[in-house]
UniProtKB/TrEMBL annotation:
Annotated organism of origin: Nocardioides aromaticivorans
Gene3D superfamilies, alphabetized: 2,3-Dihydroxybiphenyl 1,2-Dioxygenase, domain 1 (3.10.180.10)
Segments forming domain Glyoxalase-like: 15-96
Domain of life: Bacteria
Family annotation (InterPro entries): Glyas_Bleomycin-R_OHBP_Dase (IPR029068), Glyoxalase_6 (IPR041581)
Name assigned to this protein: Glyoxalase
Length: 205
């Protein structure tokens, strides 16, 4: 099992598509479709773009901000590396990060990895759901954090407690309504324990 792409639901999918292409480049595994389903506050996830070095983070963050992203957490150095958090105009939260604190060469916009982190109400229950669906665990730290193997998919799936994920994103944890994201992969439609919907990758957005 893997995530082949992500569908972002927005009131104006064309504007969302244009923003993401301008901010991060046209090659991310993203789809877009119309949705006016109510959503309020934290949507229970964020997407991380992992880069090789701080200069790459700065380059991506700069184009995203120029395209209209809101700065939630300014890009800065921390004990774990270098990065910041941005919110797209459609409300999707993006984290742009590098484990490295020092540049090793000229800035590049090359994205090394894409990680979808879901804020789980019960990490172990959500982990069991995904293991049953065929995901293989790459890392697991009890009830705190789980990361699954991408298994050839372009997006890595991770689970973190909802409160911890909201803190990591720099937003209040309260939220309700639609997640405004759909995970594309597998052969059947299903909804996980935290309300995130899956659709077969063949479904056209």
């Amino acid at each position: 099992m893997n995530i082949e792409s992500l569908t972002i639901e927005a009131a104006d999918p064309a504007a969302a598509r244009d923003f993401h292409a301008a901010a991060f480049g046209p090659d991310l595994p993203l789809r877009f479709r119309t949705s006016d389903t109510p959503t309020e506050g934290f949507r229970g996830f964020h997407i991380s773009l992992t880069m090789a070095q701080p200069a790459d983070v700065d380059a991506i963050a700069a184009t995203a901000i120029a395209a209209g992203a809101e700065v939630v957490k300014p890009v800065t150095k921390s004990f774990w590396g270098y990065g910041g958090v941005l919110r797209a105009p459609d409300g999707t939260i993006w984290k742009v990060v590098s484990a490295s604190k020092k540049d090793k060469g000229p800035a590049s916009r090359a994205i090394e990895g894409i990680v979808l982190l879901i804020g789980a109400e019960d990490v172990l229950a959500s982990k069991a759901h995904y293991v049953e669906r065929g995901f293989r665990v790459a890392k697991s730290f009890g009830r705190k954090y789980v990361e699954f193997e991408p298994a050839g998919g372009r997006v890595t799936l991770g689970l973190l407690g909802r409160k911890a994920l909201a803190k990591d994103a720099g937003v209040p944890m309260a939220g309700s309504g639609s997640h405004r994201i759909v995970l594309n992969g597998g052969g059947s439609a299903v909804t996980d324990p935290d309300g995130f919907a899956w659709e077969p990758a063949s479904v056209t957005a």
